[in-house]
Amino acid sequence: MTEVAQQVANWLTIGGIYALLALGIAVIFSILGLINIAHGELVTISGYSMVALAANGVPWALVIPLAILVALVASVLMERVAFRPMRGAPLSAMLLGSLALSIVIQNLLLLFVGARPKTIGFPGWTQSSFEVAGVTVGWLDVGCWVVTAAVLAAVIVFLRRSVRGLALRAAAEDFEVTRLMGIRADSVIRGAFAVAGLLAGIAAFFLLATSSVVVPGTGFTPMLKGFIAAVIGGLGSLSGAVLGGFVLAGVEVVFQLALPASAAPFGDAVVFGVVILVLLLRPNGLLAARSVAVERA
Amino acid sequence: MRVTFPRRSAPVVRQSEAAPDAGALLSVRGLTTCYGATVAIRDVSLDVHPGEIVTILGANGAGKTTTLGSITGLVRPSAGSIFFDGVDIAGETPERIVGCGIALSPEGRRVFAKLTVRENLRLGAGLKGQSELDERYAEVVDLFPVLERKRDDFAGLLSGGEQQQLAIGRALMSRPRLLLLDEPSLGLAPIVVSSVFDLIGRLRDRGMTIVLVEQNVDRALGLADRGYVLQTGRVIVDGPAAELRDGSAVEDAYLGLGGRS
Q1: Does this complex have an ipTM over 0.85?
Q2: Do A285 and A240 meet the contact criterion of CB atoms below 8 Å apart?
Q3: Cβ <8 Å between B98 and A176
């Protein structure tokens, strides 16, 4: 029983992080049809800014919001510098463009920061834990649950209640008609990248606090997991992305328990196998919200 | 999904001799629009005067929707001028053009299916403030009472006729001076088609200037003041609606495709 509770705690933490990443990827995909491969680099950039800020004696109460802000600004800059000049180009070109951007950022980091892992001196509370009924729960886990729930709720309120959120939802459904409403394409797209950057920055903190190190390639796995979660949920469906994050984390946790230790190296292969199975059964993902738009294309 | 952004690079080729008709609200001169190497419309010129209904007719693929797309900025014309109130807006972005006072109810209605009726109308006003919004909303639901009754329903759940009313209502939310209607009767039951045409007549009575693209030739000519007939991207005939209705030019343009009713 305690074992199950322990795994549920792990699942919620990993699922929350995946949900944040997947939601960011889905927000951009739903509007531009672009899968931003460089999304993971936001995690990396946020990580290095934590290193720099903490090393310069900035208190952690400031480091965390600043590092999240850095991810947000980096995301908006990515759009301005890399994707805006490519607007109107075929989606395959945009996809390759985002891959190129990812490689460029990684190599710039290699060049100017170096390949050696940088350790982030996280504050003590992130590594400490407490015990409830035999279940060990990290303060970081609690923080992750609370923040993920709060952020997801805030994003939902933003999308449902605000005019800008309404414009984002409309743009996700039919960008052309949204522009016919007099809503500027630039501002909607910038808003989407800002939301994606914010989510990536928050995910970066919880991801890196468990590993405590950052290297130029840090962002790749989070991007992949977020992307897969978004695909499982139904690419472009925002609620699907959140659901996909928790499903992917659930599959990972279950297989970590079920597989013998000797099979551990193949864990990802098994997880991806399950993903393929899900997509065979539901090719459009669990919440296939884009079917209308897909038909039109 | 398809997102089209007009390429900013190529400037629209202006014709130096092109001049707007002084009394016209909209004056299109020598408009040519291409999709890649395919010329969709070539050297189209037309005028719309304040308070009139002008209909654009033609078979499928004649270039009707492309003409409206070029006027609204959804596709970028490669040559020609589009004077609205004397100002050339050819090649501007859709968001700018709607700000000038041109609204489009697009082909196939394209309401935001996953948003409520009220949210659809809200967007029609762009990002306008609340008081302005309430005023316009009241005007539009006065014209379309059904939209007020179903304001919290998802637009995707409305009937075809209701969706068409929503699409037109949404376009009116921007308080346009020129309303472009692209095939408003498409896919609707005959009785609903009648009500849509009645509605367009009511809009005209309120002083709205309208460009109506239609497949339903008889009804469009019955309502319109003047008409233009497109064939493979060119205007082959234009004139008062009554003349077009009586002559054979329209039928010829359809090459039998339109039927002889």
Answers
A1: yes
A2: yes
A3: no
The type of residue at A275 is: V
pLDDT recorded at residue B208:
95
Alpha helices in A59-90 (DSSP H): 60-78
Give chain A's mean pLDDT: 88
- Chain B from 58 to 87: CB within 8 A of any A CB: 72, 74
Average pLDDT, stretch A176-202?
Answer: 93
- In which band, very low, low, confident or very high, does the pLDDT at B12 lie, cut at 50, 70 and 90? confident
Query: Smallest Cα–Cα separation from B188: which of B176, B174, B199?
Result: B199
**How much is the pLDDT for B259?**
40
Can you tell me which residue has the tokens 């004696």? A57
User: Residues A59-84: what's their mean pLDDT?
Assistant: 93
Interface of A with B (CB under 8 A): 32-33, 87-88, 163-164, 166-167, 169-170, 173-185, 236, 289-290, 292-294, 296-297
B94 touches chain A (CB under 8 A): yes
The C-alpha of A24 sits at a distance from chain B's nearest C-alpha, in angstroms, of 19
Nearest CA in chain A to B114: A173
Give dist(CA B111, CA B90) in Å, integer.
26
B123 and A CB contact within 8 Å: yes
**What single letter denotes the amino acid at residue A129?**
S
Tell me if the pTM is above 0.90.
no
pLDDT band at A276 (very low <50, low <70, confident <90, very high): confident
Nearest Cα residue in chain B from A185: B95
Tell me the C-alpha to C-alpha distance, in Å, between residue A100 and each of A21, A93, A179, A218. Answer: 20, 10, 29, 16
Distance CA A36, CA A21 (A): 11
Structure confidence at residue A267 as a pLDDT band (50, 70, 90)? confident
Q: Cβ–Cβ of A289/B1 closer than 8 Å?
A: no
Are the CB atoms for B211 and B68 separated by under 8 Å? yes
- Among candidates B83, B33, B20, B98, which has minimal Cα distance to B62? B33
**How large is the average pLDDT for residues B55-82?**
93
The interface residues of chain B toward chain A in range 173-232, judged by CB-CB distance below 8 A, are 174
Q: What token pair was written down for A284?
A: 């459009």
Residue A206 has pLDDT above 60, yes or no: yes
pLDDT at B258: 44
- DSSP, collapsed to helix, strand or coil, labels residue A177 as helix
State the smallest CA–CA distance between residue B116 and chain A in angstroms: 11
- A215, burial (CB in 10 Å: exposed 0-12, middle 13-18, buried 19+): buried
